[in-house]
Specification:
Elements: H1 2-7, H2 12-41, H3 49-77, H4 80-98, H5 104-118, H6 121-132, H7 138-162, H8 165-182, H9 190-195, H10 212-223, H11 226-236, H12 239-246, H13 254-279, H14 283-302, H15 308-321, H16 325-334, H17 338-354, H18 356-367, H19 372-393
Length: 406
């Protein structure tokens, strides 16, 4: 029934956006999977693996923050399709280069450039889908993009099991370049085209900060997603280190943990999209999954897990709990007018991805001072409280008409 419903509202743009997000997620998550083997291969001492890995992850996320603003503004000024071409070309070239580097400094430069490129894919893809599908059913299309897209992380995990880390990056770069061929016949959003000559200023990023109502909505759209990257960027990415704190003696693979988390994300994105359509609400879905995330975090830290298999099972549950990612980005696109929609939909997920920088700083400060289980729960509760407050502040957007400007 769900597949039948989705198939009715999947147009060529949705297919192209889904494929683009698939490659985007493959490349985005790949560093987290090959972090340890790539750094070991470059001669980084074992004592420095965590700190150097955090530095590189922060560098990638800062690139995504810059790219989110860049591609969002260009998406509203030049068009949604042009951004899809530019962003995928940038991160494809960067990932090919990542397969050739030999030093940590070069790694950092190319992860930053890759981050800039990766930032443009999801927000613009969701914007295209939202503007080309019927308002009551666009959730099916955006769910298809996210559900298929996040499975790119599963491919990244499988490829990493078969080939070395350099080949993994080359595979990602080549997939991106091949995807460009499918983009040739992509067509522009009708809403963007109809308003491109209206005289209304488009892509004005700082306009989000000049009016209290717009600013408060924008900040709330970001904060709703805070638990997602706390889970992926901290709990799952650094599961090998956390597992030791939980008393797990056998080695835990970051790649397998991320693979299980993204299997969970596929399930969660599918479930959140279906529930949003059934309940005809974005806000109820947010509340349900945020509370589910607290339960999964408590199990992760206090469930008495003592095996690597137990850690992977907990990562699966954590992935399901943050599977409201598609609804999160769709909600951001629906909150603002056509002249700012791509800017918001592209910057919001990238600000959340960049939130891993302060989250990792807090994690680093507490890692050797607070028991791992307590640290995870304290940070998890803090993120959940902020996210629930943002949900309370935001208006419901299910079925909202999008043919308007700010």
């Amino acid at each position: 029934m769900v597949i039948k419903q989705m198939s009715r509202y999947i147009n060529p743009l949705v297919v192209v956006a889904a494929l683009g997000y698939f490659v985007d997620i493959y490349d985005l998550i790949l560093f987290s999977i090959v972090r340890i083997p790539s750094l070991v291969d470059m001669g980084v001492p074992s004592a420095d693996l965590t700190s150097v890995g955090m530095m590189l992850l922060n560098t990638q996320m800062m690139g995504m923050l810059v790219g989110g603003i860049l591609w969002g503004v260009l998406g509203d000024r030049l068009g949604r399709v042009s951004v899809l071409f530019g962003s995928i070309l940038m991160y494809s070239v960067a990932n090919l280069a990542n397969g050739l580097i030999d030093t940590v400094s070069a790694y950092a430069v190319w992860r930053f450039i890759a981050g800039v490129g990766l930032a443009g894919e999801l927000g613009v893809g969701i914007t295209l889908a939202a503007e080309t599908l019927p308002k009551e059913t666009r959730g099916w299309g955006t769910m298809a993009i996210a559900t298929f897209g996040v499975s790119g992380a599963i491919l990244a995990g499988l490829v990493a099991e078969l080939v070395n880390w350099r080949a993994c990056y080359v595979v990602g770069g080549l997939m991106g370049l091949l995807l460009l061929l499918l983009r040739v016949k992509a067509y522009e959003s009708g809403l963007f085209t109809s308003q491109s000559h209206s005289g209304v200023a488009r892509g004005q990023f700082f306009a989000l900060f000049t009016h209290w109502h717009r600013l408060s909505k924008y900040v709330a759209c970001i904060v709703v997603g805070l638990p997602t990257w706390f889970v992926i960027g901290v709990l799952v990415t650094f599961s090998p280190e956390l597992a030791k704190g939980f008393g797990v003696t056998e080695p835990v693979s970051a790649g397998k943990a991320i693979l299980m988390a993204y299997v969970g994300l596929v399930v969660g994105d599918l479930a959140s999209g279906v529930l949003s359509q059934w309940w005809q609400s974005r806000r109820l879905v947010f509340v349900f999954f945020i509370l589910l995330g607290l339960v999964a975090t408590a199990w992760y830290g206090y469930g008495g897990i003592r095996t690597a298999a137990g850690i992977y099972g907990a990562c699966l549950a954590l992935g399901i709990s943050v599977g409201y990612w598609a609804i999160f980005v769709t909600n951001a696109a629906e909150q603002f007018g056509t002249n700012l929609r791509a800017t918001v939909a592209t910057t919001v997920p990238n600000f959340i991805r960049a939130s891993v920088v302060p989250l990792l700083l807090i994690f680093q400060l507490g890692y050797h001072r607070i028991p791992s289980s307590h640290l995870c729960m304290i940070m998890g509760v803090g993120c959940a409280v902020l996210a629930l407050g943002a949900v309370w502040w935001l208006p419901e957007t299910f079925g909202k008409e999008l043919d308007y400007v700010e």
